[in-house]
Amino acid sequence: MKETYLDVTQESGRIFFTSNTEGPIVMLNLLRFNEIADFSTCPELESDSPISGRACYNMYMKHTSPFLKKAAGELLYFGNTQPFIIGPLEEKWDMMLLVKHASKEVFLEFASNEEYLKIKGYRTAALADSRLMPILEGEI
Question: Domains plus CATH for the chain?
Answer without folding.
Answer: 10-135 (3.30.70.100)
